[in-house]
């Protein structure tokens, strides 16, 4: 699955709208940082890693490595 960019944009817009009218800057900055970090984490985890694994060994004992990229 591709990364959910529109979901990230929606999360950012929502948190900025929520904080727009607040007067306490210190609390607002902390809240924005926490919510933005959570939105980015969700965005990154929304991707799928596709990888090819090559193995060596017998059918009973296999070892392998994989190299992939997030799409």
Annotate the secondary structure layout.
Layout: H1 5-19, H2 25-45, E1 49-57, E2 62-70
Antiparallel strand pairs: 1-2
List keywords for this structure.
71 residues, alpha+beta, two-stranded antiparallel sheet, 25% strand
Structure characterization notes:
The protein is an alpha+beta fold. Helix content is 51%, strand content 25%. The protein has two helices and two strands; from the N terminus they run H-H-E-E. It has helices at residues 5-19, 25-45, and strands spanning 49-57, 62-70. The protein has a two-stranded antiparallel ribbon. The radius of gyration is 20 Å and the shape is elongated. The mean pLDDT is 81.
Précis, in short:
The protein is of the alpha+beta class and 71 residues long. The protein is 51% helix and 25% strand.
Count of helical regions: 2
Coarse structural class? alpha+beta
**Unreliable stretches, pLDDT < 50, 5 or more residues?**
none
Order of helices and strands: HHEE
Total strands: 2
Distance between the termini: 7 Å
Q: How much helix is in the residues?
A: 40-55%
Compute the gyration radius: what is it? Answer: 20 Å
Strand content: 25-35%
Instruction: Give the mean pLDDT.
Output: 81
- Which of globular, elongated, flat, extended, rod-shaped describes the shape? elongated
């Amino acid at each position: 699955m591709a990364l959910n960019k529109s979901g990230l944009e929606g999360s950012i817009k929502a948190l900025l709208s929520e904080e727009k009218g607040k007067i306490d800057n210190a609390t607002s900055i902390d809240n924005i940082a926490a919510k933005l970090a959570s939105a980015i984490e969700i965005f990154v985890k929304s991707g799928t890693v596709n990888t090819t694994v090559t193995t060596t060994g017998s059918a009973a004992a296999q070892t392998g490595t994989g190299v992939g990229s997030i799409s």
